[in-house]
């Protein structure tokens, strides 16, 4: 069996780019250095900021919280209990284990307490509504509780599948938003993706190497998500053309200015129901959960 490039220990992983074997210890060091470089490259974070890390129970958000704590950032955890049978309870227990190991505060919001419903009660495109719900609730909580930035566990695989999906549908406005850092404006906090250039496979190996608690339970509502099929395309392409995911993302970053849309008449405003920043009279969260009816 091949040995680690830097020592005589048994290899833990074979990297594709650069092409080399690493033992567990050197891989952890390599991974954390990549995160450091991404943070510096895109000027993502500084040590004075109060950071809210979104965690759902899965490896990505948990690894993001773990590595940021190790790198000395001021983090707290945020979790949404969506009320999904055979999923949400497992996720919450795993998040609690993570908070205990990291010795950081954990904030849990129950969707039912806010909307009177859970994701089980939703009809239609559950994944789309879930995404809208998560973005809104973590931003609202962060804004109301004095946080400076929100960190999510979105990774390279997520980004390339989202970009491809938006290209196939020519969603120009969405294509302009795939950036590692979205700056703050109005009541929207700064949002950061520290794994923007890091593959999902490496995040999994890091989480396993560090013994990070996470669940492999899958949300049954996400099984038919089109982005999962896009991920499968890229995984097949990667076998024939190693590093194609990173090349695709790099090409997007070089040409993302092509998707910038300037609308001189467009203005953000406050949602008439909740008061948060909105593109219309009523924000997407209040619309999908029909909170405007409750207000009336």
From TrEMBL:
Organism: Methanocaldococcus fervens (strain DSM 4213 / JCM 15782 / AG86)
Sites where the protein binds ATP: 54-56, 60, 80, 153, 158
PROSITE patterns recorded: RHODANESE_3, UPF0021
Molecular function terms, GO-annotated: 4 iron, 4 sulfur cluster binding; ATP binding; metal ion binding; transferase activity; tRNA binding
Cofactors, names only: [4Fe-4S] cluster; Mg(2+)
Protein name as catalogued: PP-loop domain protein
Keyword tags: 4Fe-4S, ATP-binding, Iron, Iron-sulfur, Magnesium, Metal-binding, Nucleotide-binding, Transferase, Zinc
SUPFAM superfamilies: Adenine nucleotide alpha hydrolases-like
CDD domains (alphabetical): TtuA-like
Single Gene Ontology BP annotation: tRNA wobble position uridine thiolation
Domain Rhodanese: 32-96
CC annotations in GO: cytosolic tRNA wobble base thiouridylase complex
One Pfam entry name: ATP_bind_3
Superkingdom classification of source: Archaea
Keyword Membrane carried by entry: no
Gene3D superfamilies in the record: HUPs
């Amino acid at each position: 069996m091949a040995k680690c490039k830097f020592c005589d220990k048994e290899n833990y992983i074979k990297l594709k780019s650069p092409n080399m074997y690493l033992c567990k210890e050197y891989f952890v060091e390599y991974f954390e250095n990549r995160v450091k470089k991404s943070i510096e490259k895109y000027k993502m974070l500084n040590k004075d900021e109060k950071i809210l890390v979104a965690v759902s129970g899965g490896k990505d958000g948990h690894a993001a919280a773990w590595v940021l704590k190790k790198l000395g950032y001021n983090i707290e955890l945020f979790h949404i209990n969506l009320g999904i049978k055979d999923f949400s309870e497992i996720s919450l227990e795993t998040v609690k284990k993570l908070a205990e190991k990291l010795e950081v505060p954990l904030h849990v919001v129950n969707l039912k307490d806010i909307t009177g419903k859970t994701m089980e009660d939703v009809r239609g495109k559950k994944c789309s509504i879930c995404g809208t719900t998560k973005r809104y609730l973590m931003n609202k909580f962060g804004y109301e509780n004095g946080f400076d930035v929100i960190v999510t566990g979105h990774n390279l695989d997520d980004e390339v599948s989202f970009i491809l999906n938006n290209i196939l549908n020519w969603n120009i406005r969405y294509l302009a938003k795939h950036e590692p850092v979205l700056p703050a404006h109005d009541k929207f906090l700064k949002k950061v993706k520290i794994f923007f250039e890091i593959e999902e496979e490496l995040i999994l190996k890091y989480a396993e190497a560090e013994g990070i608690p996470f669940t492999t339970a899958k949300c049954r509502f996400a099984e038919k998500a089109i982005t999962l099929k896009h991920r499968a395309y890229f995984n097949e392409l990667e076998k024939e053309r190693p590093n194609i995911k990173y090349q695709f993302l790099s090409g997007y970053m070089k040409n993302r200015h092509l998707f910038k849309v300037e609308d001189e008449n467009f203005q953000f405003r406050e949602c008439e129901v909740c008061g948060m920043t909105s593109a219309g009279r009523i924000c997407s969260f209040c619309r999908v959960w029909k909170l405007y009816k409750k207000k009336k």
